[in-house]
Every structure is written in structure tokens, then in C-alpha cells.
Amino acid sequence: MADIAERAAVSRMTVSLALRNHPKISESTQVRVKEAAKELGYVPNPYLSVYGSHIRSAKQKKLQAQIAFLGYERIRETPNLSPSVMTLPEAIYFGAAQQCQRLGYGIERVLLDKNDISEKRMDQILMSRGILGVLLHRNFYEGKDWDLSWEKFSVAAIGSSNVPSAFHSVDCDRQEGMMRLLNEIHCLGYKRIGFAILEQQDKHQRHTNRSAVSDYQLQIPEKRRVPHLIEAQLTKKTFLQWVHKHRADVVIGGVAKMYDWLLEGGWNVPKQIGFVRPQLMPEQSSFSGICYDHTAIGAAGIDAIVGQINRNERGYSQQTRRILVSGEWQEGSSTRLMSKGRKRPVFHLA
């Protein structure tokens, strides 16, 4: 540190702050210090960083800072709620709140109203509450295009479909999840796998589920391939006609009510036809499909923000990171074993 200070003609304190991108140090000084550090072959000592974090946590200081959770959905007080009865936003918030507590941060829920609050007022609210980091819930940009003073905050977003590409984000690994789902129903012995989804859902998912199903179809005989059903508006009549025409023996349904449509159409699930969901909600424990830990997604969002705070990174990033959280197969009761023994999976997954 002393050598860098001498080479850059600054104090040791300035070197320490400059290497951590502290806003009090001018950009030109930061560049000069970092160039000097590079010339001298300096690299941070990770053990000292871990030790410093341990000392800070051991002292049990008051909360370091506040992180805001911005979204449109109302969230109940969650500490006494079971994850099985939480809504998706509640599970994400609960995971974020737990991680904030573990890391010594506070969390503020900020309920948005696209009609009753200006961007200037929202900036004032966040600054007055001492907010350093902002976690954007998945529907943040669905209400309006918020143009806040992002340069004042470390930001991460839940989801990625409506999020500016300059923000770090955390999302479900839908493609890997769909590949896992396809492996499971293939191993159960289903041969004619149908995929039905709304156009808006397909767009929101950036076509990841559809691409995984299309990839699977390339690996099976053409006569067993069921055309996708992707419509702007899906009706029960259209859905049932598609199932009947293409003789699907299992449906990957993007909408939960498709299960009811099958029952109303006279099918016995799972005896006559299987039904699976690509992304199960907490309350859908009876369905077969992929279950994502949304509390882990919320926690990962906080990790992304705290990392930026520690590096003094704020606002838009020149090189964003997207964290994907894997899902797990939930057996449920809407599928069954179709053959005497399980088949070998199609996709090789960890």
C-alpha cells in the first residue's frame, strides 16, 4: 500500500479508498492509483477481506445501510408465514429480508403507485430514508418507465424481461428447468409431449421454455412431435381441440387453468393424460413440474446489491451479471409412470 501511495503521490488512505472505488476520490485519482497498483503487481488479499468482514460482524454494529424493495404488489408481514402459503412476491421479499438481516442491512418495502408519485418524489423518499441499494421486483417496469437517479444507488433486479440491460439481475434458470422437466416426463414414458403457452408468457420468458422443448423435439422421431400451441388468447375450446387433434399424452401448461380444462373436457389426469407446470407457484403442491426457491432468488438479489455497495458501484453497469437460480422437479400427482421402467434422460444435467 505504501509503495502504491509513493508511486501515485497520494496518501495511503487515498490508495485504500481509490482501490474500493470510493465516490469521494476523483475519477482521475482513482485511475492514477489503479495504474500504479497494476505496475507494482498489486492484487487484493481475499483473506484480509474475509477477516475484516468477520471483525465487523463480530462487533454487532447497528445496521450498515438500508436497501429498498420496490414493487407494485402488496406484501403481508411474512416472518410467521409458511413458504407454502406465501405469494411469489412474498417469498422473494422474505428471502431478501433474511439475507439483509444476515449481512447487517435493513430493508424497506416501498409500494409503488404509477399514478400518485413522481420520479422526483420517489428519489426524495429513497434518499431521505438513507437508501444505498435498490432491489427492483420483477414487475417494476411494467407500470411505467421509471427514470430515477440511479447513479445514487446500487441496483439489482428480480427477473430480466422488462429490466434495462445495464442492471444486474437475478432470475429463474428457465431453460435448465425446462430441460429438467423434459427429462423427467421423458423418463416416465410419455411419448407425445405438448407445449401450450400464451404469447405474452413466451415473450416474457424470452422464448427459453419454447426453445428447450424445440430442442427436445429434434431428438425424438418426427411422428411423435406435437406442434406448440402459442396464442395471444387461449380458449378452452382451442386448447381441447389441439390436445385431441395431436393426441398429446402429457401437456406442459403455461396456465394453471389448462388443468381444469382437461378435467372439464372429460380427461382423467393423470390416468389418461399428464399435466405439468414449467414454473410452480408455492400453493401448487399437487401439480407435477419445476419448483423454484424464490426465497433464494430474493437472497441472491441482495448479494448482488451488497457486492456493489462494497465496491462502491452505483447506477448503470457497463458489464452486467445475470444470476440464474436452478429449479427442482416436484413429482406431484398430475403425472404417472407410463412404462414398466424409467427411460434414460435426453439432456445431460448436473
TrEMBL record:
SMART domains: HTH_LACI (SM00354). InterPro entries: HTH_LacI (IPR000843), Lambda_DNA-bd_dom_sf (IPR010982), Peripla_BP_I (IPR028082). One of its GO terms (molecular function) is DNA-binding transcription factor activity. Keywords: DNA-binding, Transcription, Transcription regulation. Transmembrane segments: none annotated. Residues 1-46 form the HTH lacI-type domain. The keyword Transcription regulation applies. This is LacI family DNA-binding transcriptional regulator. It comes from Pelagicoccus enzymogenes.
